[in-house]
Structure formats: structure tokens, C-alpha cells
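DEPOSITED CHAIN:
***
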Amino acid sequence: MCFITFFFLFMFSMINLIFFVYFFMNDLVIMMEWEVISFNSMSIIVSILLDWMSLLFMMFVSLISSGVVYYSKSYMSSEKNLIRFILLVIMFVLSMMMLIISPNLISILLGWDGLGLVSYCLVIYYQNFKSFNAGMLTALSNRIGDVFILMSIAWFMNYGSWNYIFYLNFMKNDFSMIMISSMIILAAMTKSAQIPFSSWLPAAMAAPTPVSALVHSSTLVTAGVYLLIRFNDLMLNTFFKILLVLSGLTMFMAGITANYEFDLKKIIALSTLSQLGLMMMTISLNLTKLTFFHLVTHAMFKSLLFLCAGIIIHNYFNNQDIRFISILNFKFPFIYSTFNIATLTLCGLPFLSGFYSKDMIIEMFNMMSNNYLMYTMMYLSMGTTVSYSFRLIFYISLKSPKMNNMSFYLSNNMMNYSLLILLIMSMFYGSIINWILFSSLNKIFLTKMMKLIIFFILMFMMLLMLILNNIKMNKIFYKNIIIFKFMNMMWLLPLLDKKIKMKLIFMSNKFNYFNDMGWLEQISSKKIINKIMIMYKFKNIFKLNMMLMMMFLSYLMLIMKYY
């Protein structure tokens, strides 16, 4: 089952690659429509939109999925229900592909809901209390986005069709389009875990590691970013300014929290949240092509990071604490090298894949007229990215071991082959896609200081992290419980979510008690019908009783007459 799925996904990615080159070179767009049903002036149409963007994204989704499925054959070899797991992964990938190729809100909702439901099944795959809580948090947070998509579908009914591509001319003049834009942005924020919907993303780490590699690289969390790229022409500048501030806060919060975290998978998840904030910030600056470039670049090295983390956890007896994972360079040199390359790509080391997208984003950001607050937030967030990346490298390679050296390396070529494909792509494909997508020169005019400040921040944060982790100053941060908890718990966002949800549950109970179970229940249609039926039955019984009484009286009169 694993090999067949791997083969089909890999071949599908190669077909998508060929079509991407053909469509991009000839500037082709193909749109297909199938009318399912038509009633009055409304028609339900299933649409498929094929252009270079959807084909390239499908190529990356299928390539990463093929690597994850091949990796799962070895990683989950002792799993009894492996076929069920592979089928869930296939459903997950198909839902994402439906979302990618859909210009129609109804078919987008099918893919969107498919992602939410299958992700819930995958998060609770290991059936324990923690997984159930994480799955419920993920499902409830994503349901908010589903509600906004449904509301935007209702608003789109004013136009007679759900194909948003046909109504771009109405985008800034019509009140309905303003409402639709706000709902689409809120839906994308829930799926891509922006503040205040960020708490579900680290909680989703309860899923198996191959699922984490798929969810946090190219499928679930990137769905919101991709939706905004597609709906970019419908957005107003006011909404983009709000999104700019919220995405900047998300990026900064995730970077700070990752520097206080010790769970290996949660650090990588928080780095995903930080990069999602960067993508949302780039969209809010109206740089959609650059956002898409960073989206596909990030997908490859983030999946590589998760797969490396899975092998490390596998060989350290399911331990995820980085304080007990040390001297990796002596034990697993290939995994250590791969993990370090992926981490350096994440923090944007020059001439790796991540450098091309992040460097261009920062340079375009510097070219725009943003205020000092956004500049400060952007550079601090980039600095925290470098800091937690080198902190991770420091803990797994340079720190003295805190655990007995009893671990052993399960050498399995299946895992290594899947890593090798992603490693080659993470190192080289960033420059290739940069040359393809941005073949014309971008005119960037910056001063020498603005150009070099990125490298200064990279070097400064790397040195600062090494100093703080080597001297006793870090005890000030870790022993101050209030600061540590505030930073480690994502600015207390999980607690805030719980409080809000509990208040909503209690409010719904009160509403149910005072209205549905109160006087409103008595005047509802069902109750009125029940009352009428009772009266009708009473009337029939009364008639029967009267008839019986008359018969009894007549019988008595007859008896009295004869006696």
C-alpha cells in the first residue's frame, strides 16, 4: 500500500512539474466547469482552475506527500492499522488538492472542510487524553473559519454564482464584496493560526511525526495563505493594514516562544507559525508572487525538519526534550548534517533555498513606506528566527549530554532515501524557482546600511544566543516563573481560548434554559400543535362522555317508567 501510494504521488508530482513548465512558458490558464444542478437563477457548478500557480503547488504537495508516505512505511512499521493511516493521509492530500484547483467557493468549502475533518482524525490518531484535547482544540478553531466561508457563500448568492473570479470588478465598490473580503481574511487567519487563533497549531503536535511533516509544510496551515493569494484582488487596504499588524505580532510571538521551548517538535511547530506570520505580512504588503515563492520554499525544508526530528525522537526512546538530545554529530552524522542544513535554510543562510525568498521579502519591505513599529517588529522577528535556530543546533550538538549514552541508531535506508530527496530540493530548488518566477530583474534601491543590516542581525543574534546559553544569565530568564510561563505559553493564548470557549458554552446553556426550555418553547409551532391535539382529544373524550351519560340517563328513565 505504501509503495503504490508513493509511486502514484511521485509520478503525479512529475506530471505536474511538466505541465507547470508548459503553462508558465506559454502563459496558459485553463478553467473547466461542470453544472451539477440549476434552480431558478442559481446554479451549482463544480469548477477547476489550472494555471502555473496551482500546478506548481500541487507538484510540491504530491512530492512531499510521497516522501512522507515512503518514510511512514519504516517509521510506523509496528503500527497495526498502517493501511488506515495511509488512507487518511491520501484523503488529506486529496482535500488539499481540491482546495488548490477550485475557483468556486462551494468546492473550496469541500476541500476546506475535508482538511479540517481529516486533520482531526490524524491528530487523535494516538488515542489518549492529550491527543483528544489537542484534536478538539484543532477542530473547534478550524470550525470558526468554516463558519466564515459559509457566510461568504451566502453573501455571494447576491451575484448569482459562487465563482469569485467573475466579480473582481465589484471588489472595491460593493458593500457585499467588503463583507466577503473581511470573512475570507478571518477564515484564512483561523486556518493559518494567526493571533488570536494561534494556540491550536502547537497542540496539533500530538499527531504522528509524518502527519506533522505534512500538516505543517504544505497542506493544512498553508491553506489560509493560499486562499488569500487567490482572493488577493478582492481585499481592501484597510483589511490589509489590520492583517499586517496581526501577522507581525504572530511572527514576533512565535519567535519569542520558540526561544523558551524545550520540546523539539513544538520548536519546529512554532517556527512554522513564525513563517506563516511572515507570509501573511507579505500578502498584506500586496506581494502575492513573493508570498507564493516563500510558501513553496518553506514547504520543502519544513517537511525535512520534521522528518529528521522523527528519526531523532525514534532513536532517543521517544524523548522530545532537547536537553536530553545531545552530541548528535557523533551518533548520527547524516541526520545531524541534514537537520542542520534544514535549520540553516530556515534562518535564511545565504545561498540556501530559504535565503532567496526571505532576502527578497526583507528588501521589498525596506523599499516600502512602513512605520518604525513595523520595521522594529520585522527585524526583531527575523532575529528571533536566527536565535531559536542556532539554539536548537547548540543543544543537539554542542551541549554536554544529560542522558546516559544508551541510544542506538536504527539504520533504515527507507527513511534516509526520503530525507535525501527533500535535502537536495531544500538546497538547490530555491535558486531555480527564483530564476523561473522572477526572470525579469527586480529594481531594488537600498542604501549600503539597509542592505547589510540583515547580515548584521543574523550574526548578532547568533552570538547573543551563544553567550546567553553559556553564561549564568539564562537562569534569570528560566528561574523567573512569571516571565517564563508568559513566554512559554504563547503570551497565555491557550488560557484565553479556554476561558472564551467556557464562557460561550455556559452562555449557550443559559440561552437554552431561558429560551428553548422556557416560555419560547410554549409558543413554538410544535407546542402549539401539541396543545391543539390535546384539546382535540379532550373534545372527543368530552363528546364520548356526554353520549355515555345520555345513554345512562335514558336507561334510568326507562327503568323508572316500568317500575
Remarks:
- The first helix runs from residue 2 to 26.
- The radius of gyration is 30 Å.
- The chain has four domains: 1-235, 236-483, 492-522, 528-563.
- Residues 236-483 form one domain.
